[in-house]
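Example complex used in Figure S2.
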Amino acid sequence: MTAPLHEATIAELSRRIAARELSPVELAQSCIARIQALDPALNSVLLLLEENAMAEARTAEAEIAAGRRRGPLHGIPIGLKDIYETAGIRTTAHSAVLRDHVPAEDATTVRLLRAAGAVIPAKLSTWEFAIGGTSFDLPWPPARNPWDRTRDPTGSSSGSAVAVAAGLLPGAMGSDTGGSIRNPAAWCGIAGHKPTYGLVSRRGVLPLAWSLDHAGPMAWTAEDCALMMSVLAAHDPEDPASADVPAPDFAAAIGEGRRHALAGLRIGVVRHFFETDVPCTPTVLAAMEDSIRALRDLGAAVSDLTLPSFNEYGAPGNIISRAESWTIHEAWLKQDATRYGAYGRQRLASGAFLTAADLLQAQRRRAEVIARTFQAMRGLDAVVFPTARDTAGPMGVDSLSPDGLPAFYARPFNLVGGPALSVCNGFSAEGLPIGLQIAARPFQDATVLRIGDSVERALGTRARRPVLEAMAA
Amino acid sequence: MSTTDPAATAALERRLAAIGLNMPAEDLAPLARLVEGLDAAAAALREPPLRVAAEPATALRLGQASG
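Predicted assembly (540 residues):
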């Protein structure tokens, strides 16, 4: 049976477009109509690019009809978090500070997506300048979680996660400085991949903290993230952190997983992160145990391992992030801090009080914790732990839980730079999604995505969607 | 820095003025709490002492990263 367009994955849509069973124009029209019907209740879209998207879809249709299909993203609608610069199209970072900012050039990733034939129908909401949490005093309202609109999608790539989870768009771009791809992916029940630092260009993506920022894909499945990564992973001489490495063969890795599941892979469970360092809820713990059983059933050798304690990643991550983001925003804050929302300006301003020695101590600790992390992961293909301590909280979340502990387990792999993917590994009794995080040593992105694809299929979580049609009334 | 201590709040205002940052009055208490948290994080990084030779990861280089 063919899935309705809004429930079809990028992989399915791509096959149907390649077989000429589906027109990119029909697909773009479907996405735009669904955005217009449902997004007023979800607030995921900051700017709908209907005219541009329809022109791009018509071009894609003509090229494919002429036998010039460019690849798996040709004719596929992909949304952009509104920190991705787009030539001639407003890019606001969801902030009054950049309300009228119209870049002259596309970000490198946007250029790559366009070259692959993707259609760009929308710029998507974010936390202000990607620093969180959720704010109600910005020029545009915050996105809401499609599984329960009283719940927060979290962020900062909130609009990207909501648009994909609600079936408004099959894929979107996010960014991740301290979990901003993986956290909303988990709370919205989708897949989100933070690539290895340097594998995907950040040129033209408005920065939050240079040495922790990552650009990456968000989609319904790990396979779809792999399809997007096959376009996005490319050396960019204009991004000083870009790695000049051969692009991984993501399609081959997914194919290998489909043929042999996880046979031969060794996976570590970082149990102390979620059992003792920052204990997760019983609901998340139960989903973790289900996932660990699934990994074993899929043929992986699974064992516990000990990494540096969770808190050893937190302090250097916070100091580095705040010092770098203060440096970026200092001039604008001094000019007029009130143009920012209260949440963002307070966090950005706090970095002003750090000293040079604070930052250098943080960077020394970072070097040490990176070495200890990868030493502990020697001989392993990946490690797993939850993405979030709990399911989605009420609208207005912070990065801390009400008990003052971190709400998410994302920070370590921003600090160490290895790839980290969140996939949906279950649902709470209330029907809210739960996220599993799969991480690895640098440049093992294809392995991480293979594991995510296998786990999603084994657990069967991709068959369940939020029910939204009532909102259109 | 105590977030309820008027002297500490006044000190924060002086530091903000010295930096040239004009923040709304309602920001002072939450900002003080944030600065307090960062001060604690910075203190945690100083203990235990690192080897003298331990170098900072000022530029993250992974694999064959060209940067």
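The longest strand of chain A covers residues 420-427. Residues 312-359 of chain A form one domain.
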